[in-house]
Write a structure and sequence with these properties.
Distance between the termini of chain B: 29 Å
Number of helices of chain A: 5
Shape of chain B: globular
Largest sheet of chain A: none
Strand content of chain A: under 5%
Oligomer: heterodimer
Largest interface: A-B, 77 and 98 residues
Largest sheet of chain B: none
Strand content of chain B: under 5%
Structural class of chain A: mainly alpha
Order of helices and strands of chain B: HHHHHHHHHHHH
Helix content of chain A: over 70%
Number of strands of chain A: 0
Order of helices and strands of chain A: HHHHH
Distance between the termini of chain A: 42 Å
Helix content of chain B: 55-70%
Number of domains of chain A: 2
Structural class of chain B: mainly alpha
Number of strands of chain B: 0
């Protein structure tokens, strides 16, 4: 059970803020009202965060990563299967790196 | 919605003006819990697959099995847990990890708000304990019950129990699986993270209106990644994209 204190505290902090968001909506309702504009912005948070995580890597990566990325996206859209898209993406990047 | 990467942004559901035919009085009992357990099984399989990937990637990011399990049970929020793996580099940037977790999970506030008319009628203890188990999937299934006029709030508890077990057991399984592989880059496994996020991102696509916020997020992330050390680009891009999303709201694209 090797958990260092720093890691434990960070995970605990993550858990606390997450629970705050889970209970916050129930608690807040009837007290304040979110504007539709704020709601719209909140709904963009995951997408904006996800693309921010991969864009720099794809931007600085090589051709193999870019090609595998496009293939992964195509599989994901066609099959809607996360696991399959990931497996194909990993195989593709491995293959394309051999070619290089 | 039993697909592996279905993201349920069913906020439109609550604006539906269709009245359910028959509305039950609000209850919270074992029958609701059992209904929730049964309805969540198919979704549980996809959660398990998703958690398997989290287990493998968390191992690659340097989390020990017990730490990963601690995160899956205490945080219990897939997208946030995936997101912070990208920041899990020593020295750990505690502030950006926790802030990123917070902003990714802010959507829960909206989801909880949608449950309020129903859960305001159960005791605060049950309300706030059950809220711990509210995830995208369980919330979507629970809202489906609500739309159909059912009011047994125990449903969310049952659904959450299945999802929680699926998520945590697959975290362990993924960690054990990942431990077998020694040099991830050799097999292209270093790309697994990017591949997963490409798939998750495309699963969120709702139409052309997403282009501008996503484009701005990507652009800001790239610029900031070149200009600043560390992982600040994730927060910067996330904020920029969301602000753009709020700004374009109600405008003709």
């Amino acid at each position: 059970m090797d958990v260092n204190l720093e890691v434990f505290l960070i995970i605990l902090g993550m858990g606390l803020v997450t629970y705050a968001t889970r209970s916050g909506g129930l608690w807040m309702m009837g007290r304040i009202k979110l504007s539709p504009r704020v709601e719209a912005g909140l709904r963009y948070v995951p997408g904006a965060v996800f693309i921010s995580m991969i864009a720099p890597a794809l931007f600085t990566g090589g051709l193999a990563e870019l090609a595998a990325g496009i293939l992964t996206g195509a599989i994901a859209v066609r099959t809607r299967n996360l696991l399959l898209a990931m497996i194909i993406g990993v195989l593709a990047v491995w293959l394309f790196r051999q070619v290089k | 919605m039993p697909q592996v990467f279905c993201y349920t942004w069913g906020m439109s559901e609550q604006t539906s003006n269709e009245k359910p035919t028959k509305v039950e009085p609000v209850t919270y009992d074992l029958r609701g819990v059992i209904a929730g357990i049964r309805r969540t099984f198919p979704v549980g399989i996809s959660i398990f697959a998703y958690g398997l990937i989290f287990g493998v990637l968390s191992g690659q990011a340097g989390l020990h099995i017990f730490e990963a399990l601690l995160m899956s049970s205490l945080v219990y929020a897939g997208s946030a847990q995936f997101a912070v793996l990208g920041m899990w580099i020593a020295p750990l940037p505690a502030a950006s990890i926790i802030i990123t977790t917070l902003i990714i999970n802010l959507r829960h506030v909206l989801m909880g708000a949608a449950l309020y008319p129903w859960f305001s009628q159960v005791s605060p203890l049950k309300r706030y304990l059950t809220a711990y188990l509210m995830t995208d999937e369980s919330w979507a299934l629970t809202m489906g019950e609500y739309m159909n006029g059912r009011r047994n709030a125990g449903f969310l508890l049952g659904s959450g129990i299945v999802a929680f077990i699926a998520w945590n057991s697959s975290t362990i399984a993924g960690q054990l699986l990942g431990g077998v592989v020694q040099d991830p880059a050799k097999y292209g496994l270093d790309f697994a993270f990017t591949a997963v996020f490409i798939a998750l991102l495309l699963g969120l696509w709702r139409g052309k209106g997403d282009l501008l916020p996503w484009g701005i997020a990507a652009l800001v992330a790239i610029v900031v990644s070149q200009a600043l050390p560390g992982k600040w680009y994730i927060l910067a891009g996330g904020f920029a994209g969301s602000l753009m999303g709020a700004w374009t709201y109600g405008r003709k694209s």
